[in-house]
Task: structure prediction
Amino acid sequence: MATQERTGYVNVDELQEQIPVDDVLQFYGVDPGQVHRTQRELRMQCVLNCGKQQATGDRALAIEVDGVKRWKCHQYEGGESCGRSGNLVGLCDLLKAGASCNGKPRGPRFKEILQDLQAIAGGSPATAVAPTQPAATPLPLAEPKVNVPLKASDNERVRELVQLDENFVTDVATMSPKAATYFRQRPFLTPEMCKKWRMGYLPSNAKGLLRGKVVYPLLSEKGDELCWFGRDPLHEEKHDKWKQSGKTDQEPRKFQFPKTFSRGLECFGQQASRLEEPGYREAIASLGILVVEGPNDVIALDAIGVPAVGLCSNQITTEQVEKITNWAHSLSDGTVTLMLDLDQAGESGAHQAAYELAQYNRVRLAWSPALFDGRFRGRQPESLSIEEWSEIDVALRRGGKTWKDR
Result:
């Protein structure tokens, strides 16, 4: 004998599949601002009532347009991705006014959301009810984050930092032993390349918070100095001691950026003047936008005539995705070539960057732990010889591996 279906039973998965995301946002009175659409998902600023303190980038929240509307927030803040995710029911929980269940509604909260979904789907009068709470109020849009050039600062001492590189040492013979070792281990950091990139060693007896560091400038696309940041030449030594001590103390920092500087808004090597260098436009047109991690990777590749931009991290931000996408479509055929470090962190970052970039670009891998018979496993772009790059370049010109082909 067939089991009779329970009265009032609702198949939540089927209900979620019926409802467009736009209808849900409209129902809760949410204005998503600019929406970026693909066949698979919507990307928009995060509109969730999740306790965030400021508005996000306009591609932070990804919501699938089919199925149960899986979603994930990719907002990058403080060195970490938000990572919240769920289905349409969880999305409603974080859109609906009142105390949420952090995207996992249950009990009375779940029943209220179910009634909302039935109302949105146009259920029968017996089940379709109006929202029991006032519509959620959209978060006010914050002013777009921007890094102000040093020369435009209200602080006179900050404006004086424009010419900080006049105090740098680039001759290893006059550096401290540890700094000299750092430069000798990186033969591409010649005095000529240091001058070109306006980087060098700031002696320990100099003034400023970056003394004793290897210092680099981060320039705007117009070439204005946005900040100076330092690399600890003793980082590897300190990191080894930290690991041997059982990791009980705070992990030593490799780079030091000004606290007020938002590095996720910029890319190292983004200054447009580089496009005037012989052969650079042609190289980008063929190679696409080559994306690496650190400043030394960019400088080392530049030393062998290869244009690249650096994330100054192993994680890409929404703003960097937008920049790189614009460059890729204006300077090449929409191709981005990823070449992050071939360690565990770099491999994880490559997955995240490829996911973000592949929605708007053709993404290729310059290398991976498996490609080229695994010979580059554990390497960084800054360690490449011109012969090794030539081998990689030949493979890329033959077509290269796209992210889906890896």
